[in-house]
Amino acid sequence: MNNTLTIAWKELKIYFQTPTAYVVSAMFVVFAGITFILNVIGTNPEATVRSFVVPSSIFYILLAPLLTMRLLAEEQKLGTLELLLTSPVRDWEVVLGKYIASLVILIATLAATLYYVIMIYAFGEPDSGPVMSAYLGMILYGAAALAIGMLASSLTSNQIVSAVLGMGTLLILTFIDTLGSRLGGVTGDIVLEISMRTHFGDFARGIVDTSHIVYYLSIIAIFLFLAVRSVETRRWR
Amino acid sequence: MIELDSITKYYGNYPAVTDISFRVEKGEILGFLGPNGAGKSTTMKIITGFVPPTEGTCSVAGNDILTNSLAARRHIGYLPETVPLYTDMTVSDYLEFMGRIRELKGEHLRKRVDSVVQICRLEEYFDTFISKLSKGFRQRVGIAQSIIHEPDVLILDEPTIGIDPIQVVETRELIKNLGGEHTLIVSTHILPEVSMICERVIIIHEGQIVAVDKPENLATRLRGTERVEIDVAGPTREIVSALEKVPGVESVNRKNSLSDKGYSSFEIEAERGLEIRSELAISIVKNKWDLLRLEAVGMSLEEIFLRLTTTEDATQDGENLGIEEVSNNE
Hints:
The complex is a heterodimer of chains A (237) and B (330). Chain A is globular. With 237 residues, chain A is an all-alpha fold. Chain A starts with a helix and ends with a helix. Helix content of chain A is 84%, strand content 0%. Chain A has one domain. The model of chain A has no long low-confidence stretch (mean pLDDT 91). Chain B is an alpha/beta fold and 330 residues long. Chain B folds into two domains: 217 residues, P-loop containing nucleotide triphosphate hydrolases (Rossmann fold); 75 residues, MTH889-like domain (Alpha-Beta Plaits), CATH 3.30.70. Helix content of chain B is 35%, strand content 29%. Chain B contains twelve helices and 14 strands. In chain B, strand 9 and strand 10 form a beta hairpin. The relative contact order of chain B is 0.13. At the A-B interface, helix 1 and helix 4 of A face helix 2 and helix 3 of B.
């Protein structure tokens, strides 16, 4: 666990010393801000966070892979993975450490959007339950998106390829629900269940359903596991 | 300290190393000499546990590199040929990080960082981003990270490649001083370098060990001889004395007799660079002995030497004028 934190700390330092995280997070906050304003100046403004939480979750498709693309791809490109994997560090510690760093950046970015929440509380009387559940959902959704990004980053030494792979996978996993509802029947239900968006709606509405939490945790576990495996197979290639 | 037992590694169908076995004792400085692509790096990657061997076993400080990997890795300091560094980190942050993942902490970690910075003379660049350092200084940072945890085994893959001649001299000094405390494996394709640094040399070519020797003995071998093998039927003693008279021949040895027809094998050594085969044939035919076979043999080691960089200046950029003096000084 010590190694995991050491690696997480190192990655956080690099996040703060390089522009990527700043740019990506700033864009996210601006995007959330625009959707927030659109709600406020609209004909029926609501005192909820739903208005910007739902579109922002879509923005994860861009945000998460951009945050994770460097993490493992660059190690492979620079060759530093060789030093890391010949140190007394387990492969999963490397993956988990880097994942935690990206998660911290994501949560920090989300924290910046709390500004809008403060505005809502200042000028309206929102229901606190849905606000909290929405943020829980945002964290889970984001964490799952980052795990997908980690796998994408482990598969290639090219950051662009890694980002595109991550975005593609997220795009499919997010919007596949449209296909699900078209298909109908059992197949349709299964496809709907796979979609990341299906499981997000309830959080935004203020419902915390354990099945949704389990869904996101499973996505995180599966993709991180695959990322660890992918790092392991680097040795055999 | 390090033990390799019939290690074989295939990349796909291509054998990078075949059936390599050797041992390195504690405190020894072992040179790994071979032309580019001989399998030096692969062997080193196997010892560090980065690349698993297809066959065979390897252990470091008594820990198998595959089954007891973490324990083995604790004993290893490693500098790959490409000198991989995090360019987005400062020298101090980088060394601290590398120390931490090698299980150093607190006061001890700080002391070790200071100590390796001093050993590798990086004081001035302590807070410089690695991306701003020149190749030579990056090399030093690479060496610094490899010794930060005071490993028993230090593996340096071509540590003097691509840096300027003055830094080459400094780096060699540094490596020499590291011996004694650490068991060292240094790879190189520069022949004079091994005699400067190493106590024992393993020559590797096309994935196989072709010679293990002390650097002094290698020089003698390099001045070696041409060898010719013949199969001939006739009275042994007379054959030997007749062949010894051929100009250029230094020795004639009867190796063994072949089957029933009275043929024997002889090994003839001659001065290097001399073509004696036609003279030998003439001498044999003149005496009316039966000549069955006549063949030049055993050139492999010499051929490998020829493919090695045997002079220092050839490895450097030709335009650099400092080279001559440096190689003369050594």
